[in-house]
Write a structure and sequence with these properties.
Order of helices and strands: HHHHEEEEEHEEEHHEEHHH
Number of domains: 3
Length: 300
């Protein structure tokens, strides 16, 4: 394949029905792996929005092509069947079982997170040949050591496939994403309800000592037990998205302004300092901390 222009690269990626249409050979063959890496790097350089838009490709088209290319390359490296009408999903094999990788739920800098046939079991797969899952293991290990293990994913298996490390981890039962929480409260959460969720996010970041990507799909809460689980481990830079969470969950509620302003102003602070300052803000806004029952309307 010789896609010399961004437009041609977009066309080739869009036309590809399977990973084998772009990447030849088997990922276990060293020569094929080198060819595939060169092909991927050449194509991603052509279709990246920063480049493609300058050559007349619409931004949304370039973004879709980049995402599709990443998916196809990941499928090829996992050894997914290439030319069947209904390809079996990729999977990883560990000491305790075989785990089919279903929908990709989240992609951080170093780790992609996949659903499996078990709704409470997820697989974190390194996106490079380096052990990106070390960030996940370090975070969950620190949380468990600190006594927060009841609300941390519990690793149950792991291994290496196609030179990439993976970890299978089980979530506690009864969790809901912040997307579900936001949908249940379209007028915005009461600041006192959001306070326990946000405080536990900051606590987990502080205890784990690892950066995380925070969004409405990677942060899970247990309403009745007031538990929070972070699943976006595998980031390489400081925690992204905290201020966006404050904006998204509190938007529309009349008493949310001070908390939202604080989240934006505290973006440069480390997790420990943010946690301390947030506690001071909550005391100023609501007085001494007290338990406040919380339930989702459709789950009450």
């Amino acid at each position: 394949m010789d896609a010399g222009t961004p437009a041609q690269a977009v066309a080739d990626i869009t036309a590809a029905r399977t990973a084998a249409d772009l990447f030849a050979g088997a990922p276990t063959e060293a020569a094929a792996a080198r060819r595939a890496r060169r092909t991927y790097r050449r194509l991603v350089a052509l279709v990246h929005p920063d480049v493609a838009v300058g050559h007349g490709v619409a931004p949304d088209v370039a973004q879709r092509a980049t995402s599709r290319l990443n998916d196809l390359y990941e499928q090829w490296r996992l050894g997914a069947p290439a030319r069947t009408a209904g390809p079996a999903p990729p999977h990883v094999v560990g000491r305790h079982g075989t785990y089919r990788l279903r929908d990709r739920l989240h992609r951080a800098d170093l780790v992609s997170t996949y659903a499996t046939d078990d709704p409470l079991l997820r697989v974190m797969l390194s996106r490079t040949e380096s052990r990106g899952t070390d960030r996940f293991q370090a975070a969950t290990g620190a949380l468990a050591t600190a006594g927060a293990g009841a609300f941390a994913p519990t690793p149950v298996d792991g291994g290496t496939t196609a030179d990439r490390a993976w970890v299978a981890a089980r979530l506690p039962d009864g969790l809901h994403t912040l997307r579900e929480v936001r949908s249940a409260f379209p007028g915005g959460l009461d600041g006192r309800d959001w306070a326990w969720m946000a405080r536990r996010v900051l606590l987990a970041l502080d205890l784990a000592g690892e950066p995380a990507v925070l969004d409405v799909d990677t942060v899970l809460v247990h309403p009745t037990r007031h538990g929070v689980v972070l699943t976006g481990w595998g980031a390489t830079t400081a925690d992204a998205g905290l201020a966006d969470l404050f904006d998204g969950l509190l938007d529309g509620h009349p008493d949310a302004g001070r908390q939202r302003a604080w989240a934006r102003a505290s973006a440069s602070l480390d997790a420990g300092r943010r946690r301390t300052e947030y506690d001071l803000l909550l005391r100023h806004l609501y007085g001494a901390r007290r338990y406040r029952p919380f339930a989702l309307p459709d789950a009450a």
